[in-house]
């Protein structure tokens, strides 16, 4: 991994056919350049940035208070005052959707941190540690994998009791096996490389080897896997809210918004369609971005 | 062959034990909850304290966890899943017919998924990098991004409310149509991806090149030489996909009011009805493991390259 030495890329990088200097494949700047030229990454990344902006500036962007109840104007169709109409107690749907980005990001970040954090540690210990440690960890992983994903999430919710936090924890824990197996396989491969042998011969400790050589090698596959696993986690968390096992109303979480207005599907379909479409668009954007990242970082396709 | 099946069963044993451990935890982590849930709002606090102590002793909740776990496994093996606190009847009675309903739904959805997804994947592999392929891939990406619960509501809105092709509260076979379609269409997305990549991989092989060089038409190359291998590759993941469908059924059943184990399972978690939750999750995970076992054995039987004697 060689990072650019402080120089900012010239503005005409993307027009240049082939730079004069022979470019090295790899490196952060190389990956970013390719990513910016990838159409699906551009669309997906654009929407993701939009979500980030909405979450950061929600109070300034939202036209109304997301929690302000106005029962006289309940279930109003889209109008100039309420662009996407109002929900079953007269709250402005657009404002609630904008605030909902905060829940969405919170869920994505928490779930991804738990899955990736624990998964990386378990994977490294299993892949680089003693065989009996490996065996124990892998049996634990097998146990989690015996459940279909959603079922595992539901089982954890059942153990911890339903709430927004347990939903995030459940989705996070259910994601651990994937990360652990990925990191373990990278660690097993890297461990056999000659430069690791060389490092060991030079007197590097086991910890130094893991942190210094194994960990950096996991970055690329890790980013690709993150981009693939995070939308699934977000989708599951939204599903939990929809089932009443995650975020609870009146929180402006998209899945919870959907369940509230569900009984008004026949009379006020926009109140159902708006949060549903937003979840769909957000997940689709993340998948598009993930596809782009895969094209750039996955050695099999390059 | 028998030896192979036995060996597979033996390998599955520790996994089943692990599943039992997880479902056991549903009750074991917060044992007092199980007791309070039974008496919520029915007695005064003093009475409750006493009752809780009595119940804890009666159900052996004061014993160490491994004793409790041993008893749990013994009961499950005897087909005793305990009594539902909420429904006030044995769990096994309630789950039986609901499980059949869920199998109907997931079976129909799997069929729809295969019938749509596999041809779509094969077609886009055969026309790789054309607009057809890109289109099919985009549809697939849309499919994996679509929240199942929203898609179900959308289908109700379009087919029952706007077009009125299907009654809002359908009866008989029609009741299965929309939920199975929802689950099946979502399932078609991953299946088409798997079929596509398998087909692309096979089309690169030597025997395909040989068939083409003999002047065989592209259609018969695909149908006679590439299709069997592709279907085999799809078959290996059917077991896993069945598990996904079971998980998806938990959401779809709630939307459509389909009286399967998923709909009951979600209620059970909300009710904190531990015996019921345990049994439903255990049965679903068991079905998932069983389906994968069957697929493994079938695969060994169909594909002569699998060496099942060792």
Report on this structure.
The complex is a heterodimer of chains A (302) and B (310). Chain A has 302 residues and is mostly helical. Chain A contains twelve helices and no strands. Chain A has helices spanning 28-36, 39-56, 58-61, 93-128, 131-145, 149-160, 164-174, 176-191, 194-201, 206-242, 254-261, 269-297. Chain B is flat, with a radius of gyration of 24 Å. Chain B is mainly alpha-helical. Helix content of chain B is 80%, strand content 1%. Chain B has a two-stranded antiparallel ribbon. Chain B is built from twelve helices and two strands; from the N terminus they run H-H-H-H-E-E-H-H-H-H-H-H-H-H. The chains are: A mainly alpha (302), B mainly alpha (310).
- On the 0-100 scale, what is the average pLDDT of chain B? 85
Helix fraction bin of chain A: 55-70%
Low-pLDDT residue spans of chain A: 1-22
Cα shape of chain B: flat
Number of discrete helical segments of chain B:
12
Our Rg estimate of chain B from Cα atoms comes to 24 Å
Structural class, from secondary structure content of chain A? Answer: mainly alpha
Name the biggest interface.
A-B, 44 and 49 residues
List keywords for this structure.
heterodimer; A: about 300 residues; mainly alpha; B: about 300 residues; 2 strands; about 80% helix; flat
List the helices and strands and how they pair.
The complex is a heterodimer of chains A (302) and B (310).
Chain A: H1 28-36, H2 39-56, H3 58-61, H4 93-128, H5 131-145, H6 149-160, H7 164-174, H8 176-191, H9 194-201, H10 206-242, H11 254-261, H12 269-297
Helix pairs in contact in A: 2-4, 2-12, 4-5, 4-7, 4-8, 4-10, 5-8, 6-7, 7-10, 8-10, 10-11, 10-12, 11-12
Chain B: H1 2-28, H2 31-39, H3 45-58, H4 65-77, E1 83-84, E2 89-90, H5 91-126, H6 131-145, H7 148-162, H8 173-203, H9 206-213, H10 218-256, H11 261-271, H12 274-302
Antiparallel strand pairs in B: 1-2
Helix pairs in contact in B: 1-4, 1-12, 2-3, 5-6, 5-8, 5-10, 6-8, 7-8, 7-10, 8-10, 9-10, 10-11, 10-12, 11-12
């Amino acid at each position: 991994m060689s990072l650019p030495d402080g120089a900012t890329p010239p503005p005409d990088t993307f027009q240049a056919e082939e730079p004069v200097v022979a470019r090295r494949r790899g490196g952060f700047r190389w990956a970013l350049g390719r990513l910016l030229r990838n159409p699906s990454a551009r669309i997906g990344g654009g929407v993701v940035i939009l979500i980030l902006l909405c979450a950061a500036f929600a109070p300034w962007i939202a036209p109304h208070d997301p929690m302000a109840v106005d029962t006289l104007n309940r279930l109003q169709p889209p109008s100039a005052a309420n662009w996407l109409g109002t929900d079953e107690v007269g709250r402005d749907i657009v404002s609630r959707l904008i605030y909902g980005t905060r829940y969405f990001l919170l869920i994505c970040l928490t779930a991804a941190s738990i899955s990736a954090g624990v998964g990386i540690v378990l994977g490294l210990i299993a892949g680089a540690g003693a065989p009996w440690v490996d065996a124990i960890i892998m049996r634990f992983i097998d146990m989690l994998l015996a459940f279909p994903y959603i079922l595992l999430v539901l089982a954890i919710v059942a153990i911890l009791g339903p709430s927004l936090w347990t939903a995030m924890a459940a989705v996070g824990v259910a994601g651990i096996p994937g990360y652990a197996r990925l990191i373990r396989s990278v660690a097993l491969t890297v461990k056999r490389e000659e430069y690791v042998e060389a490092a060991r011969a030079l007197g590097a400790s086991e910890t130094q080897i893991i942190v210094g050589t194994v960990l950096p090698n996991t970055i690329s596959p890790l980013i690709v896997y993150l981009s693939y696993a995070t939308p699934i986690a977000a989708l599951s968390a939204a599903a939990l809210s929809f089932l009443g096992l995650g975020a609870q109303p009146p929180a402006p979480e998209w899945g919870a918004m959907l369940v509230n207005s569900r009984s008004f599907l026949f009379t006020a379909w926009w109140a159902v369609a708006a949060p549903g479409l937003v979840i769909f668009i957000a997940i689709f954007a993340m998948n598009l971005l993930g596809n782009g990242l895969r094209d750039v970082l996955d050695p099999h396709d390059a | 062959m028998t030896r192979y099946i036995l060996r597979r069963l033996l390998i599955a044993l520790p996994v089943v034990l692990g599943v039992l451990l997880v479902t056991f935890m549903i009750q074991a982590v917060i044992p007092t909850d199980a007791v309070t849930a039974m008496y919520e709002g029915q007695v005064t606090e003093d009475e409750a304290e006493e009752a809780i102590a009595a119940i804890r002793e009666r159900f052996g909740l004061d014993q160490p966890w491994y004793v409790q776990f041993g008893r749990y496994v013994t009961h499950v093996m005897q087909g005793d899943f305990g009594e539902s606190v909420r429904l006030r009847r044995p769990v096994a009675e309630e789950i039986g017919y609901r499980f059949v309903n869920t199998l109907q739904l997931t079976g129909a959805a799997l069929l729809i998924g295969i019938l749509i997804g596999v041809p779509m994947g094969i077609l886009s592999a055969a026309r790789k990098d054309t607009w057809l392929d890109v289109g099919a891939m985009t549809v697939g990406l849309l499919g994996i991004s679509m929240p199942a619960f929203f898609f179900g509501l959308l289908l109700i809105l379009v087919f029952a409310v706007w077009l009125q092709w299907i009654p809002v509260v359908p009866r008989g076979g029609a009741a299965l149509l929309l939920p199975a379609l929802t689950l099946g269409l979502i399932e078609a997305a991953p299946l088409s991806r798997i079929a596509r990549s398998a087909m692309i991989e096979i089309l690169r092989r030597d025997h395909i090149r040989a068939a083409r060089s003999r002047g065989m038409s592209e259609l018969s190359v695909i149908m006679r030489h590439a299709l069997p291998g592709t279907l085999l590759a799809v078959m290996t993941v059917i077991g896993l996909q069945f598990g996904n469908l079971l998980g998806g059924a938990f959401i779809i059943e709630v939307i459509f009011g389909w009286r399967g184990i998923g709909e009951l399972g979600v209620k059970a978690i909300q009710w904190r009805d531990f015996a019921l939750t345990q049994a439903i999750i255990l049965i679903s995970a068991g079905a998932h493991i069983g389906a994968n076992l069957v697929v493994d054995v079938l695969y060994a039987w169909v594909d002569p390259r699998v060496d099942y004697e060792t």
